[in-house]
Amino acid sequence: MEAMPDTTTKRVLLAAPRGYCAGVDRAVIAVEKALELHGAPIYVRKEIVHNKYVVETLSDRGAVFVDETDEVPEGARVVFSAHGVSPAVREAADQRNLLTIDATCPLVTKVHKEAIRFARDERTILLIGHTGHEEVEGTAGEAPEHTIVVNSPDDVDGLEVPDPENVVWLSQTTLSVDETMETVRRLRERFPALQDPPSDDICYATQNRQVAVKKLAPDCDLVVVVGSANSSNSVRLVEVALQAGATTAYRVDRAAEIRDEWFDGVSTVGVTSGASVPEILVRDVLDDLAGRGFETVEEVRTATEDLMFSLPREIRADLKVKEAERALRA
After folding, report:
1. Exposure pattern of 272-308 as b/e (b: 16+ CB <10 Å)?
2. Kindly report the CA angle at 320 between 43 and 63, in degrees rounded to 5?
3. Across-strand partners of 249?
4. Cis status of the peptide bond prior to 164, with omega within 30 of 0
5. How many CB atoms lie within 10 A of CB 49?
C-alpha cells in the first residue's frame, strides 16, 4: 500500500512577553557602558545576569567576572550584579578602595529596603527563596539576625521564630508565583499573625512570563524554555509549563542543545525564554524548529511590557563628565 502523506500541522506557540526584563537590560547596558567609558578590564562580581551567552559575550569585550571583591585589584572598577549584594560586600569593596557601579535591579533594591525596615521594627523576616542564590544572600545580608530563609512549603513545619506574633514574609523576586503563594499559605497556617509585605515582591517580568507559559502550555506537546541552569526564573518556567499541562518541557541554553528524540509525535511546540535571555537565542531556537518543519509561528501574548529603568547613577555621572569633555573640545 502507498504510504499516506503526513498531514499533521506543525506549529510553534511563541510566548510573549519573554526574554530580557528591564532590570536585566539595565544591568547588561551598565557593563557595556562602563567598558565604553573606561576601557577593559571592568570587573563584575558574580555573573551580571544568569545567562551563559551574556557572560561570554561581555567577557569577550573585556569584562572580568569574579566571585568576590578580594579578587579585584585595589582601586579598580567593579560592577555589582543585578541580583544585589549585602552590606558586607559593599564594606569589603570600600576597604579595597574599589570604584563600584551598582547594577542591582531596582525591584531587588525594594526588597532590601523592606528587609531593613522590618528588621528595624524587630520583626522576624521569613524570606522565601533559595539558599545560596545571590539575591537571597544579598537580601538576608541586610538583616541576618532577623532573617530566616524558607526554601519551600515543606520547610514551614520545622520553623521556629522568637515571636510568632511579629513575623513578616518577603520573597526572592524570581520564584514561581504559585509555589510562593503555597508557601505563604502554609506560613499563615503556622503563624496566623503573619504580615504581608507592602507590595508583591515577585518581579512583574517573572509573573508575566509564567502567565504566558500557562496560557500556551495546555496546547503544547513540548515546551522549550531558553535559559541557563542557574537562572531561577528560567528553571521555574519549565516547572510552570508542566504544571499547566504541557506534555513535556525542557530548558536549553541555546539551540544546539535541542535533541531529536524530543519530537516523536509532537505537532505543537511552545517556546519561551527567561528574563535574562537575549532574543538572539530565541531566534536561533525558532530557526532550528523551522528546520524540523515547525515553520508556522503563532505569538501568544498575555501582556505588554514598557517599563524601563534609568542606568545606575555611577554610569549616568560618568556619561555627564564625558559629554562635558566633548562640549569643551567642540
Report:
1. bbbbbbbeebbebbbebbeeeebeeeeebebeeeeee
2. 15
3. 223
4. no
5. 28
Of 40, 45, 49, which is closest to residue 96 (Cα–Cα)?
Answer: 45
Peptide bond into 17 cis (omega under 30): yes
Q: Which ranges of 156-231 would DSSP assign to H, the alpha helix? A: 177-190, 204-216
Place of cell 513575623: 167
Using DSSP's 3-state secondary structure scheme, residue 2 falls into coil
Report phi then psi at 108, rounded to 5: -75, -40
Contact between 146 and 172 (Cβ < 8 Å): no
116 SS3 class? helix
Q: Among all chains, which residue has been given the C-alpha cell 535541542?
A: 258
pLDDT in tens, the chain (330 residues): 444 444 468 999 999 999 999 999 999 999 999 999 999 999 999 999 999 999 999 999 999 999 999 999 999 999 999 999 999 999 999 999 999 999 999 999 999 999 999 999 999 999 999 999 999 999 999 999 999 999 999 999 999 999 999 999 999 999 999 999 999 999 999 999 999 998 888 999 999 999 999 999 999 999 999 999 999 999 999 999 999 999 999 999 999 999 999 999 999 999 999 999 999 999 999 999 999 999 999 999 999 999 999 999 999 999 999 999 888 887
Q: What are the grid coordinates assigned to 167, written together?
A: 513575623
Cell of 297: 509561528
HEC secondary structure over 239-266 = HHHHHCCCCEEEEECCHHHCCHHHHCCC
Here the cell at position 88 is 558586607
Name the residues annotated as catalytic.
135
211 φ/ψ sector (left φ>0, alpha ψ -120 to 50, else beta): alpha
One-letter amino acid for residue 105 of the chain: C
Roughly how many angstroms between the first and final C-alpha of the chain, as a whole number? 82
Q: How far apart are CA 289 and CA 269, in angstroms?
A: 9
